[in-house]
TrEMBL record:
The keyword Cytoplasm applies. InterPro entries: GTP-CH-I_C/QueF (IPR043133), NADPH_dep_7-cyano-7-deazaG_red (IPR050084), QueF (IPR029500), QueF_type1 (IPR016856). It comes from Salipaludibacillus keqinensis. It comes from the Bacteria. The lineage of its organism: Bacteria, Bacillati, Bacillota, Bacilli, Bacillales. Catalyzes the NADPH-dependent reduction of 7-cyano-7-deazaguanine (preQ0) to 7-aminomethyl-7-deazaguanine (preQ1). Belongs to the GTP cyclohydrolase I family. QueF type 1 subfamily. It is found in: Cytoplasm. The keyword NADP applies. This is NADPH-dependent 7-cyano-7-deazaguanine reductase.
Amino acid sequence: MAHNREEEVHLLGNTNVEYKMDYDPSILESFENRHPHRNYFVKFNCPEFTSLCPKTGQPDFATIYISYIPEKNMVESKSLKLYLFSFRNHGDFHEDCMNTILDDLVALMDPRYIEVWGKFTPRGGISIDPYVNYGKTGTKWEDFAEKRLLQHDLYPENIDHR
């Protein structure tokens, strides 16, 4: 039975939202997938992600790509925005941030499949682009995740703007 969307999400449309500056997964909200009979991708492009280097305290900037195939629940986009903003003062390595985001979204939604790809701007002449994914254990999506991981960068982009 479909729920009333207003009962499912609380941040969307709320003008008194607090922007937390420290990592907080409790911000994330989900709502019911009204099309569970169909496989489809939902993709978020988040070009303003920032976190802090845990050693130097300097800011790291990235575009984060999150793509998932929902099962029963979906992440609400405003809560995702606020959640990603909560990394602003979080000190962690790029790879750890991407794995944390994946783990938190899997815990929230239990999707069929999800991938998180961070494309960080260079510091010290090197950019780091960690890619992590997950397919629901015991399903075809587990095999899909393995294949996608092995092939995720077969056609690397031409990078001339970072």
